[in-house]
Amino acid sequence: MAFNAGPTDGERRIGTSLAEINIIPLVDVVLVLLLIFMLTAPMMYRGIDVNLPRAAAKPTAVEERMVLTITKERTLYLNEKRVAAGSLDASLRAAFGNRTDKTLYLKADSGLAYGAVIETMDQVRRAGIERLGMVTEPARER
Asked: Alpha-carbon distance 43 to 39, whole Å?
């Protein structure tokens, strides 16, 4: 019989392994499944296509955006209406008193000092405005 029972007399073989795990097929299957899920996931949340009717009436309950503009001379305008620097807090509280959306958009001249813009932002926060958006121009492509 050609059967070897292993090392005898306390001898050990060094550097041999009993089994080797090949993970390449596992990785291939996982990548294919990932690709399938990436392609099918957007289709699951699509919704129903409906042709909506057209109406001449304006939509109801549309609130206009509130924009606070700061010029280079540090003049404040709330939706094209001039506001004194000392009465900004009161003007904002009056403008946002009955509004559900407490969002204000800030347009500041690029030549203004950083501190002047931060001071105005602080006044806006103290007036109770919950969300403040900064309005910028898109960068020009070269």
From this structure: 8
